[in-house]
Amino acid sequence: MPHPLPALIVVDVQRAFDEWEAAGQRRNNPDAVARIVDLLAAFRASGAPIFHIRHEGTKPSSTFRPERTGYAVKDEAREQGGEPVIVKRVNSAFIGTDLETRLRASNIATLVICGATTNHCVETTTRMAGNLGFDAQLVRDATWTFDRVGPDGEAHSAEDIHTITLSNLNGEFARIVTAGEVIASLAALRQ
């Protein structure tokens, strides 16, 4: 029998992204971490499962290497007692980890995914969640990304990348939702 509540998957809410911003990289969705805090509070109040994902960089230059300050989780999104932390070394939280095993063991069918960045680890984790048969919900206002330059040298805004990523995932891999919708749905499940 499926678990009655969804699980919250919090992807890579780490200080490295603050360091990128401090170095001049521009991001979208400045309120994303506040929405993640809202989701964490709602899931904790509901007793719903929460899984924290951390990225561990392997390249010498990575700001996500465990010995660097960027590896640490942002204080606002820090795990609390009993909430597992799963460390990954690639984009997907399902590769090289026991995340799928843990979810299946608890009969969790629905995943609410948030974190950073929209078009990298969040997208890859969401695609795999959908491919693995989970009911994946990606929280559009609880994720963010950065401006990027494409292979042709053309600049792409974080807003455009975010929107296109959500469009690519919508329907086939996940439902695109807001934090408010998820919180209202959790409240309805508790009644």
Give a verbal description of the structure.
The chain is an alpha/beta fold and 191 residues long. The chain has one domain (7-190): Isochorismatase-like (Rossmann fold, 3-Layer(aba) Sandwich). The chain has helices spanning 16-22, 32-46, 99-105, 118-131, 158-169, 179-190; strands at residues 7-11, 50-55, 85-88, 110-116, 135-144, 148-149, 155-156, 175-177. The chain has a six-stranded parallel sheet, sandwiched between helices. A two-stranded antiparallel ribbon has the order 6-7. Helix 2 packs parallel to helix 6 (179-190). It starts with 6 loop residues before the first strand and ends with a helix. The model has no long low-confidence stretch (mean pLDDT 96).
Shape: globular
What is the C-level CATH assignment?
A: Alpha Beta
Strand content: 15-25%
Order of helices and strands, N to C? EHHEEHEHEEEHEH
Q: What multimeric state do the chains show?
A: single chain
Q: Please state the average pLDDT score.
A: 96
- Residue share in helix: 25-40%
Number of strands: 8
- If you compute it from the alpha carbons, what radius of gyration comes out, rounded to the nearest whole angstrom? 16 Å
Total separate domains = 1
* Helix/strand/pairing category: alpha/beta
> Which runs of at least 5 residues are low in confidence (pLDDT < 50)?
none
CATH superfamily: Isochorismatase-like
- Based on the coordinates given, report the CATH architecture: 3-Layer(aba) Sandwich
Spatial order of the strands in the main sheet? 3-2-1-4-5-8
State the end-to-end distance: 20 Å
Instruction: Report the total helices.
Output: 6
